[in-house]
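Whiteboard transcription, Tuesday session. T.W. wrote the C-alpha cells on the left side:
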C-alpha cells in the first residue's frame, strides 16, 4: 500500500496525528525511541524535517531507526531539495505557495525531481501555506505571510492547491509559533476544499490540538512539543486531543 493510501484510509476514521522529528536534533537511535513512544501514544506517522542541518546521512539513519523502532511510515518533510534518501517511505513534494522566491515555489523541486524519480520514492504533492507568525520557515522561505485575519487569502491559497491537483494543503504557523493557525481560518479553509488539510505550528497543548481538530484539520502536526517534553502523559493527552479518542 502507498503511504498516501495509508493516510487516506486512516483519515476516513478521523483526524490523524503526525510527529515531526528533526534528524539534526538527536542521534538516530533516540529518534527511533521517540517514534516508538509516539506510536504507543497513538501517532499515525512521522514527518522527518528541519530547516537546517538535514543531510542525506542523518536522514537515512533517522528514517531507518524510526521504521525499525516504531513501524510507522517515515515521510520526508523537506526543508530543501538536497537531502534525499531511498530509506524514506515517501516524500512530501511541496510547493511553498506564498513564497516570493521561485526557488521555494518550484525551482528546487524541478532540480530534485529526476533524482527522486530515479530512486523510485513515493511523492505526495502538497501545497504549503505559511501563516503569521511564520517563524523560521516564513523567513527562510521568503513567505509573503498570510495574515492571521486574512481568511479569504488562506482560502484562496488552499483552493489553488486543490486546483493544481495537490493531494494535501498545509496551513503552517511556523515551528514554535506563539499561537497556532486560528481555528476560524482552519474551518473556513476546510469548508472550501475537498483535499485533506494539514495544520501545524505552535500546537503544544491538548486544547490547541482539540481546537484544530474541531475546526476541521485532517492531520495535526506537532514538533516542538515532542522535542521538549518527555512527559509521556502530556504527549499522550495531545495526541488523544488531536485524534479525538
Ligand atoms: C512545523 O508545523 C510544524 O512545520 C510543527 O510546529 O514545532 O510548533 O509543533 P511545532
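and on the right, the sequence the group agreed on:
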Amino acid at each position: 500500500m502507498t503511504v498516501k493510501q495509508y493516510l487516506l484510509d486512516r483519515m476516513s476514521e478521523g483526524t490523524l496525528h503526525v510527529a515531526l522529528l528533526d534528524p539534526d536534533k538527536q542521534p538516530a537511535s533516540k529518534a527511533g525511541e521517540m517514534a516508538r513512544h509516539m506510536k504507543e501514544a497513538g501517532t499515525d506517522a512521522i514527518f522527518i524535517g528541519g530547516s537546517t542541518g538535514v543531510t542525506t546521512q542523518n536522514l537515512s539513519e533517522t528514517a531507518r531507526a524510526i521504521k525499525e523502532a516504531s513501524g510507522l511510515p517515515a515521510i520526508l518533510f523537506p526543508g530543501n531539495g538536497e537531502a534525499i534518501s531511498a530509506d524514506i517511505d515517501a516524500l512530501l513534494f511541496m510547493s511553498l505557495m506564498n513564497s516570493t522566491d521561485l526557488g521555494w515555489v518550484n525551482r528546487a523541486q524541478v532540480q530534485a525531481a529526476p533524482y527522486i524519480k530515479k530512486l523510485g520514492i513515493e511523492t505526495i504533492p502538497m501545497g504549503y501555506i505559511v501563516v503569521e507568525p511564520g517563524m523560521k520557515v516564513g523567513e527562510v522561505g521568503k513567505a509573503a505571510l498570510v495574515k492571521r485575519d486574512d481568511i479569504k487569502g488562506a482560502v484562496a491559497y488552499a483552493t489553488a492547491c486543490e486546483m493544481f491537483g495537490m493531494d494535501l494543503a498545509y496551513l503552517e504557523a511556523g515551528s514554535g509559533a506563539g499561537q497556532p493557525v486560528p481555528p476560524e481560518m482552519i474551518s473556513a479553509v476546510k469548508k472550501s476544499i475537498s483535499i485533506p488539510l494539514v495544520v501545524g505550528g505552535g500546537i503544544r497543548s491538548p486544547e490547541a490540538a482539540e481546537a484544530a481538530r474541531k475546526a476541521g484539520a485532517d492531520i495535526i502536526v506537532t514538533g516542538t512539543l515532542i522535542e521538549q517534553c518527555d512527559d509521556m502523559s502530556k504527549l499522550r493527552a495531545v495526541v488523544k486531543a488531536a485524534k479525538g479518542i
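Someone added at the bottom: The pocket of SN-glycerol-1-phosphate is lined by residues 20, 172, 175-177, 200-203, 221-225 (CB under 6 Å).
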